[in-house]
TrEMBL record:
Highest taxon listed in the record's lineage: Eukaryota
Key word Hydrolase present: yes
Keywords: Hydrolase
Pfam families, alphabetized: Asparaginase_2 (PF01112)
InterPro entries in the cross-refs: Ntn_hydrolases_N, Peptidase_T2
GO biological process: protein maturation
GO cellular component: cytoplasm
GO MF annotation, one: threonine-type endopeptidase activity
Protein's name according to its UniProt entry: N-terminal nucleophile aminohydrolase
Length: 123
Protein backbone atom coordinates (compact mmCIF):
# COMPACT_ATOMS: atom_id res chain seq x y z
CA UNK A 1 0.00 0.00 0.00
CA UNK A 2 1.27 3.47 -0.89
CA UNK A 3 0.61 6.69 0.95
CA UNK A 4 0.50 10.01 -0.88
CA UNK A 5 0.27 13.42 0.73
CA UNK A 6 -0.46 16.64 -1.16
CA UNK A 7 -0.78 20.07 0.43
CA UNK A 8 -1.08 23.61 -0.85
CA UNK A 9 -0.11 26.97 0.54
CA UNK A 10 -3.57 28.49 0.78
CA UNK A 11 -5.57 31.03 -1.14
CA UNK A 12 -4.20 34.23 -2.57
CA UNK A 13 -0.73 35.07 -3.71
CA UNK A 14 2.57 34.75 -1.92
CA UNK A 15 5.56 37.04 -2.23
CA UNK A 16 8.50 35.71 -4.19
CA UNK A 17 10.67 36.82 -1.27
CA UNK A 18 9.05 34.12 0.92
CA UNK A 19 9.07 31.36 -1.72
CA UNK A 20 11.86 29.42 0.00
CA UNK A 21 10.09 29.51 3.39
CA UNK A 22 6.78 28.62 1.76
CA UNK A 23 8.22 25.54 0.06
CA UNK A 24 9.95 24.56 3.30
CA UNK A 25 6.61 24.75 5.17
CA UNK A 26 4.88 22.61 2.52
CA UNK A 27 7.66 20.00 2.63
CA UNK A 28 7.53 19.93 6.44
CA UNK A 29 3.75 19.36 6.40
CA UNK A 30 4.15 16.45 3.97
CA UNK A 31 7.05 14.97 5.95
CA UNK A 32 5.26 15.15 9.30
CA UNK A 33 2.11 13.66 7.78
CA UNK A 34 4.06 10.83 6.14
CA UNK A 35 5.97 10.18 9.37
CA UNK A 36 2.66 9.95 11.23
CA UNK A 37 1.20 7.63 8.58
CA UNK A 38 3.86 5.02 9.33
CA UNK A 39 2.21 4.42 12.69
CA UNK A 40 -0.27 1.63 12.07
CA UNK A 41 -2.90 3.13 14.36
CA UNK A 42 -3.13 6.36 12.35
CA UNK A 43 -6.20 6.80 10.16
CA UNK A 44 -6.18 8.88 6.96
CA UNK A 45 -8.04 11.56 8.93
CA UNK A 46 -5.24 11.60 11.51
CA UNK A 47 -2.65 12.02 8.76
CA UNK A 48 -4.61 14.85 7.10
CA UNK A 49 -5.06 16.59 10.44
CA UNK A 50 -1.30 16.39 11.12
CA UNK A 51 -0.48 17.96 7.73
CA UNK A 52 -2.99 20.78 8.16
CA UNK A 53 -1.92 21.47 11.75
CA UNK A 54 1.67 21.95 10.54
CA UNK A 55 0.41 24.41 7.90
CA UNK A 56 -1.71 26.27 10.47
CA UNK A 57 1.28 26.59 12.79
CA UNK A 58 3.54 28.20 10.18
CA UNK A 59 3.52 32.03 10.09
CA UNK A 60 4.53 32.19 6.41
CA UNK A 61 1.18 30.70 5.34
CA UNK A 62 -2.23 32.34 5.56
CA UNK A 63 -3.78 29.55 7.64
CA UNK A 64 -4.00 29.57 11.42
CA UNK A 65 -1.05 31.47 12.87
CA UNK A 66 -0.27 33.37 9.67
CA UNK A 67 -3.86 34.35 8.87
CA UNK A 68 -4.79 37.72 7.50
CA UNK A 69 -6.78 40.03 9.73
CA UNK A 70 -10.46 40.78 9.16
CA UNK A 71 -11.61 44.38 8.67
CA UNK A 72 -12.09 44.51 12.45
CA UNK A 73 -8.46 43.46 13.01
CA UNK A 74 -9.34 39.94 14.18
CA UNK A 75 -7.92 36.66 12.89
CA UNK A 76 -10.83 34.55 11.62
CA UNK A 77 -10.12 31.11 10.14
CA UNK A 78 -12.05 28.53 8.17
CA UNK A 79 -11.26 24.81 8.22
CA UNK A 80 -12.89 21.65 6.89
CA UNK A 81 -12.04 17.97 6.94
CA UNK A 82 -13.82 15.08 5.21
CA UNK A 83 -13.46 11.35 5.67
CA UNK A 84 -14.33 10.28 2.11
CA UNK A 85 -17.61 8.70 3.25
CA UNK A 86 -19.73 11.86 3.04
CA UNK A 87 -18.95 12.84 6.63
CA UNK A 88 -17.31 16.16 7.29
CA UNK A 89 -16.68 18.74 9.94
CA UNK A 90 -16.09 22.40 9.27
CA UNK A 91 -15.85 25.78 10.93
CA UNK A 92 -16.05 29.26 9.46
CA UNK A 93 -14.78 32.60 10.72
CA UNK A 94 -13.59 30.96 13.94
CA UNK A 95 -11.46 33.14 16.18
CA UNK A 96 -9.25 32.54 19.20
CA UNK A 97 -8.36 28.95 18.25
CA UNK A 98 -4.78 27.93 17.47
CA UNK A 99 -5.69 25.06 15.14
CA UNK A 100 -9.13 25.36 13.52
CA UNK A 101 -8.65 21.98 11.79
CA UNK A 102 -8.75 20.30 15.19
CA UNK A 103 -12.12 21.92 15.91
CA UNK A 104 -13.41 20.81 12.50
CA UNK A 105 -12.19 17.26 13.22
CA UNK A 106 -13.91 17.28 16.61
CA UNK A 107 -17.16 18.37 14.93
CA UNK A 108 -16.81 15.56 12.38
CA UNK A 109 -16.42 13.03 15.18
CA UNK A 110 -19.27 14.52 17.24
CA UNK A 111 -21.60 14.50 14.23
CA UNK A 112 -21.25 10.70 14.10
CA UNK A 113 -22.87 10.31 17.52
CA UNK A 114 -26.59 9.60 17.28
CA UNK A 115 -28.63 12.19 19.16
CA UNK A 116 -31.36 10.62 21.35
CA UNK A 117 -33.65 13.60 20.69
CA UNK A 118 -33.22 13.35 16.91
CA UNK A 119 -31.51 16.72 16.57
CA UNK A 120 -29.43 17.36 13.47
CA UNK A 121 -25.71 17.09 14.29
CA UNK A 122 -23.50 20.19 13.94
CA UNK A 123 -21.48 20.74 10.79
Amino acid sequence: MHTFIAVHGGAGSHSSSTERELKQALRLACKKALDSSSLTSRSPLDVAEVAITVLEDDPVLNAGYGSNLSLEGIVECDAAIMDGNYHFGSVGAISGVKNPIQVARALLQHSQISDPLGRVPPL
